[in-house]
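Re: that chain you flagged

S.,

Sorry for the slow reply, it's been a week of failed gels. I finally had a moment to sit down with the sequence you sent. For the record, here it is as I used it:
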Amino acid sequence: MSAYDLVASPYPPAIADDLADVAAFVVAARSDETSGVAAEPWRAEVSGARSTAFYTAHSYPTKLPPEAIVPFLEHYSAPGDLVLDPFAGSGMTGVAACMTGRRAVLNDLSPLAVHLAYNHTTPCDPDRLVAAFEDLYRGLRPAFESLYWAEDGYVRHTLWSVVYQCPFCRNGIRYWDVAVDHTTGAVQDAFACPTCANVVTKLGLQILRSEPVLVNVDAPNGRTERAPTDVEVAHITGLAAEPIEDWYPDIPFSTDREMYIRCALHLQGIHRIEDFYTRRNLRALARIWRDVQGVADRRVRRALQFAFTNTAWHGTRMRRFNAFGGHRPLTGTLYIPQISSEANVLEVMRHKVRQLARYYAAYRPPDASVQRALRVGSAADLREIPDGSIDYAFFDPPFGANIFYADLNYLLEAWLGATTRADDEMVVNRSRSVASGGKTLADYERLLTDAFREVRRVLKPERWASVVFHNTDPGVWSAFQDAAEAAGFSIEGTSGLNRAQLSMKGYKGLSDAENVAHHDIVLHMRSRASRPARTRRPPDETYLVASLRGYLETTGGPRTTQYMHSLALRHLVGNGYRLDGVSYAYVRQVCAQHFEARQGGWYVRSGEERAPSPVA
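Prediction finished late last night. Pasting the structure tokens below so you have them in one place:
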């Protein structure tokens, strides 16, 4: 059985030629060298930026900056060693490994992830990439001037507004006109119907349609923004009525998927992949995708497909209006906003290709040959990798019910011609029933245990695995601890990983508006020759308070509740404690009882006697 499901397409799956003979790669690269194994776990906190060329090359629901992975690679492995990431995601472990002279084995359940990992880890000549795209651009620009036509120029983007039905007079209410401050972008949840003057709230209102309300145009006298004319609206409407001749992924989005239910996509009229796009952008993307397939240079063609999938993400109706510019979709969710920005996808892709050229100019591994192998499959079944062949493992598994990669990646995988087989996805379903294939916390623990067992099997004895993890649910943490111990790992230390910039939910957590984890924990596990006989102790509040106080006294503060939650878990897990009941709310309560809140964070209370703190 294939590791992925194929989509009916005139083009071969974009990852078909990128997968390697992993067993042969490992056998050729493995070494019996055992010296230099780290004696102690890495304990220092690391951080990474989300603004570098390495991080911004392509959107993905979660990414670790590669520079944040490098310290762990250099502590636990040596140049030439084999590094495994069984949950490779966008391939950042592979980037860090290749840049530091290691060899990487990258596995993921998602074809999109492997597509990203291939393009992130495979060098490409930036000049050839730009030249190839400019050839495509010159051929496409005349047709796109017709697609994105305006009476006074060439459309760069078009804002679309949802139109609600007034429950009183049954007439339409255009959200852009009554609820949006066009200068600041501030929106109102309650507004008056322009026809009957009754005040309504958007929650629960029926959506009638979406309409173009503003165009951003390259005009002879410079860039301008204005309302579209009746002729321009008629042009857009006419395009929507015409058949699309080029292939695009014409497949349904199943209504029983977790993200379909959780995001209430039925209210936005989403039934198929094509419903995530305006008809104009779907037509434009189909034309670009067709022309990309005709590029003769295989590596350049793969890089253009890489640029395309990021463009196809920005070309969706999920691209949100931002009054200060930089319209973009949210990651980690499927969401059609009330005001969406329809991008001119040819110009988006041109910008992306130039970004990728900067990436490939910066990505210069010391070994010019490809030093990584890619695999699509479950982390719970790494059968191609021989026993005791891997020197170090670094990975970032799914955090319970936080991210559903199979659903989020489905949109772009449909263009690639291969979609995730989600049966083995390690998640906890909250919206999808068990009867329809949903997974429980017990299912999550079982799959995670199987993955940990596979990692331990392929690791050399006494070698290390570092696992990035976080969650605000103590039950998920217990599942993690039980899975690690059942697989025979010994958790011997923890450290922190700060991804620097926050997500939108992260900002809500920062303000304590929601219980949202942000500072990730890195758990350092060792593959001992014999299974550890370690009994975890119940959580001890006295120990926890002393640990947190000692940290605040050393650093001076302030520290946010998000950070204190992460720090609490690091102290407890790293020192053999269970996490029963250690929720985000519990940590906030402990902080409120024992520390002082000032300047958006927690301090040791003024005048409080200094107490000795345990070693973390």
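What I noticed first: The longest helix spans residues 126-147.

Talk soon,
D.
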